[in-house]
Amino acid sequence: xxxxxxxxxxxxxxxxxxxxxxxxxxxxxxxxxxxxxxxxxxxxxxxxxxxxxxxxxxxxxxxxxxxxxxxxxxxxxxxxxxxxxxxxxxxxxxxxxxxxxxxxxxxxxxxxxxxxxxxxxxxxxxxxxxxxxxxxxxxxxxxxxxxxxxxxxxxxxxxxxxxxxxxxxxxxxxxxxxxxxxxxxxxxxxxxxxxxxxxxxxxxxxxxxxxxxxxxxxxxxxxxxxxxxxxxxxxxxxxxxxxxxxxxxxxxxxxxxxxxxxxxxxxxxxxxxxxxxxxxxxxxxxxxxxxxxxxxxxxxxxxxxxxxxxxxxxxxxxxxxxxxxxxxxxxxxxxxxxxxxxxxxxxxxxxxxxxxxxxxxxxxxxxxxxxxxxxxxxxxxxxxxxxxxxxxxxxxxxxxxxxxxxxxxxxxxxxxxxxxxxxxxxxxxxxxxxx
Length: 435
Ligand SMILES: Cc1cc2nc3c(=O)[nH]c(=O)nc-3n(C[C@H](O)[C@H](O)[C@H](O)COP(=O)(O)OP(=O)(O)OC[C@H]3O[C@@H](n4cnc5c(N)ncnc54)[C@H](O)[C@@H]3O)c2cc1C
Ligand SMILES: *[C@@H]1O[C@H](CO)[C@@H](O)[C@H](O)[C@H]1NC(C)=O
Ligand SMILES: *[C@@H]1O[C@H](CO)[C@@H](O)[C@H](O)[C@H]1NC(C)=O
Ligand SMILES: *[C@@H]1O[C@H](CO)[C@@H](O)[C@H](O)[C@H]1NC(C)=O
Ligand SMILES: *[C@@H]1O[C@H](CO)[C@@H](O)[C@H](O)[C@H]1NC(C)=O
What we know:
Bound molecules: flavin-adenine dinucleotide, 2-acetamido-2-deoxy-beta-D-glucopyranose
Structural class: alpha/beta
Shape: globular
Strand content: 15-25%
Helix content: 25-40%
Mean pLDDT: 84
Oligomer: single chain
């Protein structure tokens, strides 16, 4: 049976889902809408790992992702003068073994989004070349839903350009602050679903200097401020600013994210101008940058991943926060399972959505967790004070140095990988998962 499906958001999850769904069900009509007038390619290095690897391999886009990888050499903690306090290299003298600080697949978010988008379009072309006449894939930019009403067998949607259309299913892939989630589930559930880490982050790029090598660098400034740079083998230097462990600033920055971009930048500049290290350069670069992105860090935990014919995908449904490094991988797992279950249950969309909700619970349980502890236990309560150990742990976690952490004292228990992805005919991942 072919369906009319609307995907809201062309970030990572939207295009990846469109790609996978076409693979199992080429006869669906898929429309992807994106609020921005082009692909939104901002963002910094993001990870592709665990099940994300076989999934993208099955999609046939792993070579493109590999080619886009950023290569980092190590990480250094620096003081206010930029002097290295501690360094972690690729080859650790301590263990005599080489281990890579960063993940196998570290890719700039913009490159990742482009690869997913191109992949979804190439899949359509492949279907048409092989004589597929039914089904379609349409991207509409600068488009949002201004209104949507659930009916017995679907959703009546009004778009921002005034057009109206009926869909059998709406897939909300509109990110951490999903408007579709809020409208569908209501303000109350929406607010409760967001578990803040009490941390705010801003990310942007500045020109690389000759003196920049390919190590990541982290500096902890007083007042719960942290600055990280990552350059790798890129012509740009990524700057990450974090505010943490400061209640007043936390409250203040909640409202900063709603300000116009220029004012947001000004707030960040005021907060970091005296943070030492190369802050003059970073604040100058902040003024110039065109790819500034800031948010409150937290996780989304929804009691249910769908309501009627609206289903949540990716960060919209289960943002794990950047500190887990699992956002993109989880959105791929979700895309894979949702596409697979829709195909498996054919006419019964309700059953497919329920199966998706249930099958997502084990990977969510596993990957939304920090340090193997509880979801909220990651951010130690303030009475513990700011200790260097915490800082180091925190910094390492943001780089996802799993192996290093294991070695440093077994904070991250080696959990048996007891969860296996379901297998679907049509999503030829069987041999791919047996790496
Ligand atoms: C600009 C940007 C920068 C990011 N930078 C980082 C980073 O540096 N590190 C990190 O770990 N994670 C980052 N993320 C989050 C990361 O992309 C996700 O965790 C992960 O890839 C899952 O992707 P997603 O598609 O679910 O959400 P997202 O990648 O957030 O994509 C959501 C998409 O939906 C669009 N959208 C939002 N609202 C609407 C609407 N109402 N109608 C239509 N479209 C809408 C957005 O413009 C966006 O294109 C960033 C996200 C964005 C949008
Ligand atoms: C898909 O689109 C085609 C072309 O517009 C249309 O003929 C067909 O009925 C649509 N299918 C569904 C399920 O809406
Ligand atoms: C580190 O990465 C390099 C290059 O990708 C690879 O050849 C090497 O095997 C990796 N080392 C470890 C210990 O994973
Ligand atoms: C975006 O859409 C709005 C409303 O449909 C329209 O007024 C505006 O001109 C569009 N902008 C671009 C850049 O296409
Ligand atoms: C910012 O832009 C100005 C004017 O274009 C330029 O002179 C300056 O070098 C830029 N600074 C950085 C850090 O890129």
